[in-house]
Design the sequence.
DNA sequence: ACCGTATTCAGCGCG
DNA sequence: TGAATACGGT
């Protein structure tokens, strides 16, 4: 039982077995943080602590799930199940449902997601007759969100002179009014947005001391993961909950704080000592993930930040290879270079596609990468795209379910009242909305008795509304007696939704139909009690109703694996999305001034430091090898813009870098990488460069560029750049290809560096052929023929 | 009510 | 550039 401790290093052990009193674990990148948290919880349980009295808060569902599974392995499923572990939002939404009526909410309140919130804001802005360009729903949402995360109610917001001044200066004086109406409408709809889940928890704990006391005594041990990303609202909740027992353990890494832009407060971790003078601090500094080079590079990056806790990350791992720095002339070419590099590395080191990740600063950069990967037939998966639960058809069915559970849910009602079409048009809906607002009631109330609320509509519309209301009521009756799946299935069919999709025979329509089936499958699983509760597993085994299913559906994010079952794909994602993940080979692309660091941050030291931490996060995702690339021109908002390499590259210890600048695009894509493991070659890039200049066909060659550290390109992108590079690539490819087109198994060949060998296997179709060659000196190698320059010896 | 065209906008995104 | 949405014509 206890021997899991033996697998830990000294600081890890200390952090794991210290359980009383306030403590902070500063966990460097790749330092085994998750192991420490999970072992610590297991250790608590093994020492007689009731799992019900342990609260562990994470930032993502994924992290919670992962840790819970690990704990299960150590202490068993039964015990692990009783643990309170989940995201802030899921844990406190659960508590809010239990205590809802104290705040005047029903237990079955709806959780509005960002789209619901923005849609509500949009209608409020419209109703107030405000200019939608002046009050963009997204910006208004962010402003309100920031206020809530700083525990500013709409009243406080409007009473705060400084805020009012700010809003007037930014020509948005009505923000406070919008905030007020927004909250009223949420309440009217029995709904809370994401920020309300935390804000209202604070209200609950502030106004109901007995409730607070109950949870203070319940949660004797509190742990918070990713503490550097907590905002003020979360900070106050944690502080209050831990105030009685003070068994509070926070885990984080100030160097990886990358969410200040949405309210996370790095001061929470930097100031933790002030809150708890007798705080114990543990530092996990040994990195188990990355090579020495990567750790050294990362340390040299973060050393440029002023605000940081002292920490020395080191590793016993191998030295590893230097970080390649690749330059392309365009964003498209950057994609080609990266894709080629992945292809080669995969072949040369027999790596899986899933060993690679391409990380970028902005989502817009994914397009060039995708195109290049597709051209080379490299399978990939984009993370952070449209999630399952954000698809229209899924939201439609869920909206019916939401309305069934909570008739006051206005956003759900607006979504489905005329979809599928039932002749209730915009005019009618507008009238109902106005009447609801005037009478301070919900649309549901109004549409049931439009005459009473003096809505001026004809009998036809009244009948249709009546039919709709009756249908929703019949759904509710079924939802109260049958399982979640049976109710969901009934709703999908009787609402006409399924039929609507079934009749659409286009590929998209078929896919939507399948998605609905998929959602129903999920409901079925849930109904059969196969699904673990997000926070704590209920012990009861009674019927699982639709209302149970709907409880945290808004809080779910799908981390589903690809449906085709093939997860052996290159991962593409933003650096933000990559946090917490690791890959053997990591490509960080678009490392250019004004992109990374982003143009919007370079005038603020704090924001620039956050960008630098983001870069630190990116580099530390790599286990074996990191590669950095940038382009000297790229399309921004439709315009070809000149770019130069990022200051962040210059900040990396020069010993860690290996500049691999081709002289032109053709060489970069075809000739330059022909020695597959060139990066370990002693030749250095300068010689290499000279060797290759003769291959180049591009007009942009610059033969004078031989300095050790390449100068920053003063580069004005020529017109038709893309076309020219493409033509150059083609030429290069043909030159290479002719040598090996007729290569056959059994041929003797000579390679420039590996010497003489015999061809054993040829795979693939020209020009993408791969050969296994047994070299007399160098042994067996896998080479890509279009890159490897082989001489056939007959 | 619906569809095609014009216009607009573009930062990262947990829950 | 290209996706999302607003608008205007039928």
Sequence:
């Amino acid at each position: 039982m206890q021997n899991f401790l033996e697998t830990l290093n000294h600081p890890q052990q200390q952090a794991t077995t210290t359980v009383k009193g306030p403590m902070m674990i500063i966990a460097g990148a790749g330092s085994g943080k998750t192991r420490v948290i999970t072992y610590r919880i297991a250790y608590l349980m093994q020492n007689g602590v009731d799992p019900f009295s342990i609260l562990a808060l994470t930032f993502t569902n994924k992290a919670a799930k992962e840790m819970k599974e690990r704990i299960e392995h150590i202490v068993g499923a039964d015990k692990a199940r009783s643990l309170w572990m989940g995201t802030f939002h899921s844990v406190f939404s659960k508590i809010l449902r239990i205590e809802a009526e104290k705040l005047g909410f029903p237990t079955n309140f709806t959780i509005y997601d960002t789209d619901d919130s923005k849609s509500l804001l949009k209608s409020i802005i419209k109703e107030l007759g405000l200019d939608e360009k002046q009050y963009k729903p997204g910006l208004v949402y962010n402003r309100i969100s920031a206020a809530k995360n700083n525990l500013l109610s709409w009243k406080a917001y409007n009473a705060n002179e400084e805020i009012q001044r700010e809003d007037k200066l930014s020509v948005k004086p009505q923000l406070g009014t919008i905030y007020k109406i927004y909250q009223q409408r949420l309440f009217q709809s029995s709904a809370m947005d994401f920020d309300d889940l935390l804000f209202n928890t604070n209200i609950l704990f502030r106004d109901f001391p007995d409730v607070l006391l109950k949870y203070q005594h319940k949660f004797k041990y509190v742990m918070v993961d990713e503490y550097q990303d907590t905002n003020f609202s979360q900070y106050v909740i944690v502080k209050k909950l831990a105030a009685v027992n003070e068994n509070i353990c926070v885990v984080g890494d100030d160097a990886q704080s990358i969410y200040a832009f949405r309210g996370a407060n790095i001061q929470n971790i930097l100031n933790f000592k002030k809150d708890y003078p007798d705080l114990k601090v543990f530092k996990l500094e040994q990195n188990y993930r990355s090579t020495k080079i990567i750790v050294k590079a990362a340390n040299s990056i973060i050393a440029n930040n002023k605000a940081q806790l002292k920490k020395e990350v080191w590793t016993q791992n191998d030295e590893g290879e230097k970080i390649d720095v690749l330059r392309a002339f365009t964003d498209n070419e950057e994609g080609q270079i990266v894709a080629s590099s992945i292809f080669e590395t995969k072949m040369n080191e027999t790596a899986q596609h899933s060993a690679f990740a391409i990380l970028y600063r902005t989502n817009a950069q994914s397009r060039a990468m995708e195109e290049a990967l597709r051209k080379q037939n490299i399978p990939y998966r984009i993370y952070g795209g449209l999630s399952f639960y954000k698809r229209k058809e899924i939201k439609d069915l869920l909206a019916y379910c939401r309305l069934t559970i909570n008739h006051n849910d206005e956003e759900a009602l607006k979504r489905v009242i005329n979809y599928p079409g039932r002749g209730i048009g915009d005019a009618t809906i507008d009238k109902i909305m106005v009447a609801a607002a005037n009478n301070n009631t919900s649309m549901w109330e109004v549409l049931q008795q439009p005459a009473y609320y003096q809505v001026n509509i004809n009998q036809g519309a009244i009948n249709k509304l009546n039919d709709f209301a009756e249908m929703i009521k019949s759904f509710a009756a079924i939802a109260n007696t049958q399982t979640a799946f049976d109710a969901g299935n009934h709703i999908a069919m009787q609402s006409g939704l399924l039929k609507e999709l079934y009749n659409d025979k286009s590929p998209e329509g078929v896919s939507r139909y399948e998605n609905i089936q998929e959602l129903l499958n999920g409901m079925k699983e849930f109904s059969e009690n196969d699904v673990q509760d997000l926070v704590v597993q209920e012990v009861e085994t009674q019927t699982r109703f639709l209302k149970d299913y709907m409880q945290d559906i808004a809080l779910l994010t799908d981390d589903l694996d690809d449906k085709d079952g093939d997860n052996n794909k290159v991962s593409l994602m933003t650096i933000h999305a990559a946090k917490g993940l690791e890959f053997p080979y990591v490509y960080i692309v678009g490392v250019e001034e004004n992109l990374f660091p982003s143009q919007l941050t370079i005038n603020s030291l704090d924001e620039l430091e956050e960008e630098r931490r983001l870069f630190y996060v990116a580099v530390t995702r790599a286990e074996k090898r990191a590669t950095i690339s940038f382009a000297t021109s790229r399309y921004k908002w439709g315009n070809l813009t000149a770019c130069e390499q990022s200051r962040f590259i210059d900040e990396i210890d020069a010993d860690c870098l290996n500049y691999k600048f081709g002289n032109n695009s053709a060489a970069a894509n075809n000739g330059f990488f022909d020695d597959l493991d060139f990066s370990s070659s002693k030749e250095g890039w300068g010689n290499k460069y000279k060797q290759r200049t003769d291959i180049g066909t591009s007009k942009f060659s610059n033969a004078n560029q031989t300095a050790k550290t390449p100068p920053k390109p003063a580069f004005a992108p020529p017109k038709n750049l893309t076309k020219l590079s493409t033509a150059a690539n083609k030429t290069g490819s043909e030159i290479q290809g002719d040598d090996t087109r007729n290569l056959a198994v059994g041929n003797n060949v000579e390679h420039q560096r590996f010497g003489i060998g015999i061809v054993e296997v040829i795979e693939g179709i020209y020009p993408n052929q791969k050969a296994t060659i047994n070299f007399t000196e160098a042994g067996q190698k896998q080479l890509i023929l279009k890159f490897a320059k082989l001489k056939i010896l007959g």
Q: What stands out?
A: Residues 364, 367, 635-639 of chain A lie near DNA strand C (CB under 10 Å from a C1'). The CA atoms of residues 244 and 325 of chain A lie 53 Å apart.
